[in-house]
């Protein structure tokens, strides 16, 4: 019985270390988990228009709240989220599979978006810290496809002037960029 308890405690400790390590990695590489609030998501949905078949990437999707909110409105689009922090990733996976028939068009990947190709995206959503912006802009400059819209929540990208900027009371700022701006930034 004592050996069984020791094994259980070791497994719990290992699991806790893995969770903590994933949080630290996420916070150091791009952003800690900070979900976009419901009101902000509703406003974002009002401002974005998607066509059937379009592909949306959420870089650092956390628990997938933005993706699932968009998928509720645009069932004919495809949504892909990338997350490296284990807890929000597991929450997103749980949300997806708890309503699998509704969210068949949503894919959540436990992957570092910096190591993923974003060329398929028609819209890229970003809510990250500014410390990763130089690396992110360099990545997008190399990979973004023509006519891709990039929506950034909270802080503007460096050295790029947004095509649209929304700042309303009670909401975080939203910055809209077109792919051509990244190509011209090279």
Structure explained in plain terms:
There is one protein chain. The model has no long low-confidence stretch (mean pLDDT 89). The chain has a single domain, classed as Vaccinia Virus protein VP39 (Rossmann fold, 3-Layer(aba) Sandwich). Strands 3-2-1-4-5-7-6 form a 7-stranded mixed β-sheet. With 186 residues, it is an alpha/beta fold. The longest helix has 28 residues, at 2-29. It has helices at residues 2-29, 38-47, 65-73, 86-98, 133-143, 179-184, and strands at residues 55-59, 78-82, 106-109, 123-126, 149-153, 164-166, 174-178. It is built from 6 helices and 7 strands.
Gist of the model:
This protein is of the alpha/beta class. Helix content is 41%, strand content 17%.
* Main pleated sheet: 7 strands, mixed
The domain tally reads: 1
Quaternary structure annotation: single chain
CATH class, anyone? Alpha Beta
Give me the number of helical elements: 6
Sheet with most strands: strand arrangement: 3-2-1-4-5-7-6
Shape: globular
The CATH topology label is: Rossmann fold
Q: Going by CATH, what is the homologous superfamily?
A: Vaccinia Virus protein VP39
The CATH architecture category equals 3-Layer(aba) Sandwich
Low-confidence stretches: none
The helix fraction, in percent, is 40-55%
Overall pLDDT, averaged? 89
């Amino acid at each position: 019985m004592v050996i069984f308890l020791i094994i259980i405690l070791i497994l719990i400790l290992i699991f806790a270390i893995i969770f903590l390590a994933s949080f630290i990695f996420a916070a150091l590489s791009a952003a800690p988990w900070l979900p976009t609030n419901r009101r902000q998501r509703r406003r974002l949905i009002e401002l974005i228009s998607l066509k059937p078949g379009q592909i949306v990437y959420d870089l650092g999707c956390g628990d997938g709240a933005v993706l699932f909110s968009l998928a509720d409105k645009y069932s004919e689009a495809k949504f892909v989220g990338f997350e490296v922090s284990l807890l929000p990733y597991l929450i997103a996976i749980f949300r997806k599979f708890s309503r699998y028939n509704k969210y068949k068009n949503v894919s959540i990947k436990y992957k570092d978006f910096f190591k993923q190709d974003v060329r398929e995206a028609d819209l890229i959503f970003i809510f990250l810290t500014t410390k990763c912006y130089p690396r992110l802009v360099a990545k997008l400059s190399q990979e973004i496809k023509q006519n891709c819209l990039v929506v950034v929540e909270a802080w503007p990208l460096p050295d790029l002037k947004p095509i649209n900027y929304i700042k309303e009371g009670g909401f975080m700022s939203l910055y809209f960029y077109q792919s051509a701006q990244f190509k011209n930034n090279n």
